[in-house]
């Protein structure tokens, strides 16, 4: 029987992607949709300005949106996907977990909290056991799992593939699509014929979340990895797909061929939304490119290419679809991991 799920922030850009992925999902059944007070009580088709590139699912369109309040969500909903603005998430997500709901959240609040697992299933599924610590400390029947920032998700799997070489220092520079800023995030007058070398708090997120993801969980505490990470983030005028330039200094000798082989061999999982091949390695020097490569693996694969030796160690480029692998798809994958591990 399918698990009954709810979407918090269901009318937003990420909420709509979540509905697009969850509606046909064989393991999940959409049973609750929440948004702000101005949407509560409306039919979903009236509350949401549907902008996703497939028709609005008819059964979802007929559902009534409720306020984002634990008392408004039916008790037989077992899993919540949250795509709320982080300031709202910080207020309401703990109340849902306290009320017994298990939550897979995309919002950035609490990602760095010591007892909150920040998960990319193919990289650190073992960190999920941190939920036992979380439940002990907070007295929750529910649980909270986070997925990282979309730019973090793009480069961390490639670093995980190189960990055996002893990562010391990483520099990453991003070229981020406009969809990452949301529908109203940057105006056409700002971004056409332009690039913006600033995305608020993004650099700090890449630098800290990456070390948490690559850290070790010993059954009681999570220690962050010692690799030093420096990031520089830029908005460009692509629609979807974050492209990143990465430089890696390692303890061991790390040639371009070693790196390409390690990434190609890095395993995926057999969760329903995991791609068959997690990291696609391109030999062509001008790939990956956002328009050509963002939909690989149904938008859930990472791609990499342009491997070369540089003054600052190994250099390469990587890419992922920011609203699929980087947001809604990442939350769904974490929901599948929670299901597989008996949390639902
Ligand atoms: N856009 C993207 O590609 C990415 C976004 N994210 C993150 O995901 C989250 C959502 O982003 P996005 O979908 O773009 O945001 P949107 O602004 O498009 O959607 C926000 C959602 O939250 C609801 N909401 C707003 N205020 C409240 C409130 N006071 N109480 C309850 N619900 C409220 C909105 O409801 P209503 O329609 O009623 O206002 C809407 O459903 C953010 O934390 C963002 O940083 C992460 C990665 C990528
Ligand atoms: N800041 C990201 C999207 C985002 O909302 O990130 P976060 O999930 O960390 O809030 C971008 O602009 O591409």
Automatic annotation (TrEMBL):
One of its GO terms (biological process) is threonine biosynthetic process. SUPFAM superfamilies: Glyceraldehyde-3-phosphate dehydrogenase-like, C-terminal domain, NAD(P)-binding Rossmann-fold domains. The keyword Oxidoreductase applies. Gene3D superfamilies: Dihydrodipicolinate Reductase, domain 2 (3.30.360.10), NAD(P)-binding Rossmann-like Domain (3.40.50.720). Pfam families: Semialdhyde_dh, Semialdhyde_dhC. It comes from the Archaea. InterPro entries: ASADH-related, Asp_semi-ald_DH_pep-lack, NAD(P)-bd_dom_sf, Semialdehyde_DH_NAD-bd, Semialdhyde_DH_dimer_dom. Keywords: NADP, Oxidoreductase. Residues 4-131 form the Semialdehyde dehydrogenase NAD-binding domain. One of its GO terms (molecular function) is protein dimerization activity. Signal peptide: none annotated. The active site is at residues 150, 242. SMART domains: Semialdhyde_dh. Belongs to the aspartate-semialdehyde dehydrogenase family. This is Aspartate-semialdehyde dehydrogenase. It comes from Natrarchaeobaculum aegyptiacum. The lineage of its organism: Archaea, Methanobacteriati, Methanobacteriota, Stenosarchaea group, Halobacteria.
